[in-house]
Design goal:
By secondary structure, this protein is α/β, with parallel strands linked by helices. The protein is 38% helix and 18% strand. A ten-stranded mixed β-sheet has the order 2-1-3-12-11-4-5-10-8-9, sandwiched between helices. The protein has a two-stranded antiparallel ribbon with strand order 6-7. It is globular, with a radius of gyration of 20 Å.
Length: 362
């Protein structure tokens, strides 16, 4: 039986992961193992991620994470454990270098977006962000009057993330936009050269290159022009958060962090074996201010479940069912506090009510 490691984490994490388990049970039969991570693991074991939990995640077919962090564990002591170390440890320990963030505004939430309805109409894009290289991981120096952060990319790092972008575009609309700053940065010039070379292996995918400043503008001016965006770590961090606001709330955003993938299977519908399980989680944080109140929005976690099914287990049909069920609940007018606009037809709902609606639609 397919094994899923559940990492509820902190804050609202246990609530939304518990709700997600009900959704998983509505679409298939899975076995679960639940483990502490983040602040919960610090409290229990003095570290944000134990070797035993990492080993259990490696042995699973997929990993579902709630959220980590909270003021309880905030500290300026550089030697003190921090909840976020658990997430970084998982990425490193599982070899996860590709972060996927889909942006598909629900038609029922048009009023929640800061952009006009006609601008976001037809938007369905995927940001593929390189997760383990670039300026975030380069050598850092600091003096009293200056500071430096080194940005380094190797051709092999660029090639492997480019292939994730091409594979993803091949399963979607067949268009890939590679975002860089090749008019200024040497790393971006290498990026563009490598991506262009990889394109030869994917003749059915249309590739175009775009400078990051232009991409930032186009995301708010004409988001529907994009299918898949592939880019380096820092650019991906910024652009994915910008794109996220097209949906109107961080409470609607799922994500997947993946490792090595091979070519599509013979059916061309799903990725085949990876080097290890993927990590799936909502983009939002642990929201400690509402933890335990039963009002958290679980929809980003449900959509992360859809990504787990499709990108982690190759169950595209089941993933589509979950996404359709989320749309159905929203079309019924159900709105958690973060989604409510006061419009006619809306009905304020708590975590349990939204979960019941989605499970009922399934």
């Amino acid at each position: 039986m397919t094994r899923i490691a559940l990492l509820p984490g902190d804050g609202i994490g246990p609530e939304i992961v518990g709700a997600a388990r009900r959704v998983l049970d509505a679409v298939g039969e899975f076995s679960y193992e639940e483990h502490p991570v983040g602040g919960a693991s610090i409290d229990a074991h003095g570290t944000a991620l134990t070797d035993e939990v990492l080993a259990a995640c490696r042995a699973a077919d997929a990993v579902l994470l709630g959220a980590v962090g909270g003021p309880k564990w905030d500290t300026t002591d550089p030697d003190a454990p921090r909840p976020e170390q658990g997430l970084l440890g998982l990425r490193k320990g599982l070899g996860l270098f590709a972060n996927l963030r889909p942006v598909r505004p629900s038609p029922a939430l048009t009023a929640s977006s800061p952009l006009r309805a006609e601008v976001i109409a037809g938007t369905d894009l995927l940001v593929v962000r390189e997760l383990t290289g670039g300026i975030y991981f380069g050598e850092k120096t600091r003096t009293a009057t200056s500071a430096a952060d080194q940005c380094v990319y190797g051709a092999d790092e660029i090639e492997r993330i480019a292939r994730v972008g091409f594979e993803s575009a091949g399963r979607r609309q067949g268009r890939l936009t590679s975002v860089d700053k090749a008019n200024v940065l040497e790393t971006s010039r290498l990026w563009r050269e490598v991506v262009t070379a990889v394109a030869a292996d994917y003749p059915d995918v249309e590739l175009d290159h775009m400078l990051v400043d232009s991409a930032a503008m186009q995301l708010v001016a004409a988001p529907s022009r994009f299918d898949v965006i592939v880019t380096e770590n820092m650019f991906g961090d910024i652009l994915s958060d910008e794109a996220a606001m097209l949906t109107g709330s961080l409470g609607m955003l799922p994500s997947a962090s993946l490792g090595e993938i091979s070519r599509l299977n013979d059916a061309g519908t799903s990725p085949s074996a990876r080097s290890g399980p993927g990590l799936f989680e909502p983009v939002h944080g642990s929201a400690p201010d509402i933890a335990g109140k039963g009002v958290a929005n679980p929809l980003a976690t449900f959509l992360s479940v859809a990504m787990l099914l499709r990108d982690g287990l190759g169950l595209a049909t089941e993933a589509g069912r979950v996404e359709a069920a989320v749309d159905t609940a929203l079309e019924q007018g159900l709105r958690t506090a973060d989604l409510a606009t006061g419009a006619e037809g809306e009905r304020r709902a708590d975590t349990a009510e939204v979960t019941e609606a989605v499970v009922g639609a399934l």
